[in-house]
Target: NADP-dependent oxidoreductase
Amino acid sequence: MKAVAVTTFKAIPQVMELPEPAVKEGHILIRLAAAGLNPFDWKMIDGILKDHMPHVFPLIIGVDGAGVVEATGPGVTRFKTGDRVYGQMLHAPVGEGSYAEFVVVPEKAAIAEAPTGIPLTDAAAAPTAGMTALQLLEKSGLSAGQTLLLVGATGGVGSFVTQLASARGIRVAATVGTAEETERMKKLGATSTVNYKENEPYPTSDALIDLINKGEAFGKMLEYVKPGGAALTTQFVADKKALEAKQLHGGNFETQGTPASLDELRKAIDNEEINIPVDRKINLEQAPAAIAESRELKSKGKTIIVINDQL
Model:
């Protein structure tokens, strides 16, 4: 089968011909329609999990994916052949990822029934970014009528957060850098925008979700959150004492991929609370270049790697 993989940590990804994985007990074999590109994919190449999970090489990249169950191993009860599924393919050993024509994953992984209202290729872009957005909003504690300052709004996660918050009656102030981004974010449901390149003032809000700032930059954003509000960062740079000093809750945030969260995300997609913010669709041969571009954090939405659009 074709797959995008590396032979060592920090190597340049390549398209390779590798053996099709065999289904085994407690696992399902998925024929993939597409994979979704996430920054975590190149962090895997750099070895972010090397001290936490076993790895195999060649290491096939990719966490998010969607496809059709091709076969089930002994003991599998959640899925059957022909099921359309989506989710996070990451499992031990790291290196059996979603940038491939086939993947074998434990049935207990963060895999669930795919949305029915969109193509499988689009569903591949939803799992990590969508679950992150859902869980960030839940952690924020915001309700209808309250305000959210969203920093890093134009990427995949930010696009999901904006739509979900808008559907719940939350007023979103989204950071942007261009007039084009302003128009796009307002179409997704942002109530207002803040152009950081033009030094526009940030509004005081009930909560802050910061998807990009690191170090002191996140700390400076806390002044725009009302006392008693929430401040969340996906960059793991929150200082607990600084939050407490400003009477804020939240802090560092990490997504917990679960079938239940995927089910909630599927309902939001099928209820049209979310349109998948697709920036572009590419093929496996184009994936190595797209990974290099992702390292530069230039995303305007989700990149989908189409593997089999006939599923």
